[in-house]
Amino acid sequence: MRYWAFLLVFLFLAACESTDDTYVPGRIPKETAVAIAMQANKQYPYPLSKVTRVAWRAEQGYWAIDFRDEEEDYGKFYLVNGRGRIVGVGNIQGDQYY
After folding, report:
1. Which of 28, 49, 63, 98 could tie 32 with a disulfide, CB 3.0–4.6 Å?
2. How is the chain split into domains, by residue range?
């Protein structure tokens, strides 16, 4: 009976394991990267007030954060590395990043 209880507790704990990748040791959380990009964005909160993408690019080692206007025609993107420094900035026109 004791082994069944142990097995059930083990299965319960395994099912409760977090799959959230927002925190990884040595990398700033997603929310912090967005806050850094917001502070760097001189046009926040208006007109570029919509955060349309936040993605971790593991190959390059940075967060990619997009800010766009309400119509999503124009925008700006920021690349924030795992230590919290902005390593790239660019513009968005339609679907073109430059």
Report:
1. 28
2. 27-97
